[in-house]
Write a structure and sequence with these properties.
2 strands, two-stranded parallel ribbon, mainly alpha, 12 helices, Ferritin, 2 domains
Length: 315
């Protein structure tokens, strides 16, 4: 059961309306790293969680994220309040009203379609989607994802703080940003409270592959560090050793029944390419300047004397 307290978790004080800033703030309302996405991620994880401690943690933070959705939504509503009234009452001239609505962002959509209220979209007007929720039902996997989500949200709040000089908005965003830090700390504690938290899942990795680092990007810029060198790693710089790394022949095979093999052979014969052919194609027939060499041309770029003359005329 939910009960709504009409007081916000943090007081919203907006100095003056600003529809463009409102549209940017929507990133944390209906965006991929916004408060609704966080609330839905943690609620769904909490409902499926069997560990009492993690279940309590997830439902606590999920509920708080809804309160943060209310705070950021209230900021958006206050920033749009002047434009909403002007549009509803048509008290400005058409030109002034048009300019106020189309100053930037998707402020015109916010005003026309949503009447200045916060919409469940990101700052570009893309509707919120459940595809933002990346839970997998494994606590060590999901907690790591949650830690990353809180980190991303903090960075977005930092950027929003940097684009406004409204002290009241800065304070509210600073509070929301700091709660992301606190939630990350809680999720970190919950993750490391699981004794065997790496690798994720139940099955162990294959030992002979678990300590290999393959240096597949080589050339200027190669660097050594604890992520690819040292006693923990068996580093492979000779890429031939990784093709194939399992010691097989590196081909793909499948066991087919006699009937499937016969049909597959017929298909292969019917669709086989003739490597000796050089057919004239539609590209050749419609080729113009800049088409490159076409069928029948030599490196000089002309099939015969007439074509050479045509090329000379074109130049």
């Amino acid at each position: 059961m939910f009960m709504h307290n009409k007081r916000l978790q943090y007081t919203v004080r907006v100095a003056e309306p600003n529809p463009v800033l409102a549209s940017l703030m929507l990133e944390q309302f209906g965006g991929a790293d916004g408060e609704l996405a966080a609330a839905m991620r943690y609620f769904t994880q909490g409902l499926g969680e069997t560990d009492a401690g993690r279940k309590d943690l997830l439902l606590d933070i999920a509920t708080e994220e809804l309160s943060h959705l209310e705070v950021i939504g209230s900021i958006v509503a206050m920033l749009n309040k002047g434009a909403k009234a002007q549009l509803a009452e048509a008290s400005m001239t058409e030109a002034e009203l048009y300019l106020s609505m189309t100053a930037g962002g998707n402020s015109h959509t916010q005003s026309l379609l949503y009447g200045g209220g916060p919409s469940l979209t990101n700052s570009s007007g893309v509707p919120w989607t459940a595809a933002y929720i990346d839970s997998r039902g494994d606590p060590t996997c999901d907690l790591r994802s949650n830690i990353a989500a809180e980190s991303r949200a903090k960075i977005v709040y930092e950027r929003l703080i940097n684009i406004t000089d409204d002290p009241g908005i800065k304070e509210a965003l600073g509070f929301l940003m700091t709660r992301e830090v606190a939630h990350q700390k809680s999720f970190e504690k919950a993750l490391y409270a699981i004794e065997n938290n790496f690798p994720t899942g139940k099955l162990p990795g294959i030992e002979k592959y678990a300590n290999i680092y393959v240096n597949t990007s080589q050339g200027d810029g190669d660097e050594n560090g604890p992520w690819n060198s040292g006693e923990q790693w068996e580093r492979i710089d000779d890429l031939e050793k990784t093709m194939p790394i399992d010691g097989g022949d590196g081909t793909a095979t499948v066991g087919l029944s006699k009937s499937d093999a016969a049909v597959a052979e017929k298909l292969a014969k019917r669709t086989a390419s003739d490597p000796t052919s050089d057919p004239e194609t539609g590209v050749d027939l419609g080729a113009g300047p800049g088409a490159g060499l076409i069928t029948g041309e030599d490196l000089g770029g002309a099939k015969d004397v007439n074509d050479a003359a045509k090329m000379a005329d074109a130049l």
